[in-house]
Amino acid sequence: MSPFWIDLIIILIKVIVVMGALLGGVMMMAIVERRGAGFLQERLGPNRVGPWGFFQPIADGIKLFFKEEFIPAQAHKLLYLAAPAFFVFIAFATFAVIPFGDKLELFGRTIQLQIADVNIGILYIFAFASLGVYGIVIAGWASNNKFSLMGGLRSAAQMISYEVALGLSIIGILMVVHSLRLNDIIVAQTHYWGYLPRWNIFVQPLGFLIFLIATFAEVNRIPFDLCEAEQELVVGYQVEYGSMKFVMYYMGEYVNLVTFSALIVVLFFGGWHIPWIEGLAIHPLLLALLQVGAFVVKVFAFLWFFVWVRWTFPRFRYDQLMRFGWLVLLPLAIFNIFATGVVMVLIP
User: Fold this and answer.
1) Residue 197 bridge partners (DSSP)
2) For the chain, which residues make up each domain, given as ranges?
3) What's the sign of the alpha-carbon dihedral 143, 149, 155, 161?
4) How far apart are CA 20 and CA 275, in angstroms?
5) Are 128 and 106 in contact (CB under 8 A)?
6) What span, in angstroms and rounded, lies between the C-alpha atoms of 339 and 135?
7) What are phi and psi of 24, to 5 degrees?
8) Per-position pLDDT tens, the chain of length 348
9) Do the beta carbons of residue 236 and residue 140 sit within 8 Å?
10) DSSP 8-state class, residue 327
């Protein structure tokens, strides 16, 4: 078999594995979200289907699959049907450049544990993430429902406002690393300050805080879920969607949550790096598995953090949300860039 076909098969295997992991992550988060909400609110949560309620996502999927499909009479049918498919496609495509491990030596070949290793990886993620708002806005408009449209417009204003601070918050990292490639950003964090790993959380603490807050707005999670605002808009832009079309939005939101949790880990917490393990004589295959496991644990820690925040804090008012984005986060992000430049000049 020619090297081309071998490389193609390897890429297809990685796509299937990552897609399966993301779908498994969505199912896991469906039960973690609900059981976590019960835990934080001192109640049980779903506990009837399967042991400890773990099969509840399967029951929900079966229920939604058999629910009646409908299209509003005055809706723009093509865009109404295309919007959820576009949203979920963007959500899955964004994860393609996330490195979930280092390298794997197998059958004499070096396999990069990443679907696509591109030189502009961080720009790729922001470009695709910014397209996700179209799936929401189109859904709100195509439904021909004023409440759906209101949710879509809120989402557009929110995501545009916070994507500015989100992008500026990582400029400090790019200034330090001199690369847009995600693997280079991880490798730069494998060094040490004495015994302390040189993770970007220690190099760019203000950038991390800004990025984390802006991420809540990017993935539409409380306290930044103004596009849904369930108590006010009856699930906002999704109000006319049911059955599997609703599932596609539900799935896309959780895939976005996993993707941005992974991006936080890559940018600020060393990605797959395990501190103080370099001096140990570990078989390369076992080391690769440990690195993937470390990456998964870090990502899950942030997924739980998002769940904890959702069920602990109230939603912002719309004016508070916009004011915070433009008058607080944006100036802080610009200040962080300036401070990073000053430090790099004073401490080469």
Assistant:
1) 192
2) 71-102+115-346
3) positive
4) 28
5) no
6) 37
7) -65, -40
8) 677 778 888 889 999 999 999 988 888 888 888 888 888 888 888 888 888 888 888 888 888 888 888 888 888 889 998 999 999 999 999 999 999 988 887 777 788 888 888 888 899 999 888 888 888 889 888 988 888 888 788 888 888 888 899 999 999 999 999 989 999 999 999 888 878 899 999 999 999 999 999 999 888 888 887 766 655 656 677 778 888 888 888 888 899 999 999 999 999 999 999 988 877 778 888 888 899 999 999 999 999 999 999 888 888 888 888 899 899 999 999 999 999 999 988 876
9) yes
10) I
The partner residues of 136 in beta bridges, in order of sequence, read none
Residues 6+ apart with CB under 8 A from 22: 92, 95, 255, 258
d(CA 16, CA 40): 35
Q: Which residues, other chains included, contact 314 with Cβ-Cβ below 8 Å and sequence gap of 6+?
A: 222, 223
- Does 205 sit behind a cis peptide bond, omega within 30 degrees of 0 on the bond before it? no
Strand, coil or helix: 196: strand
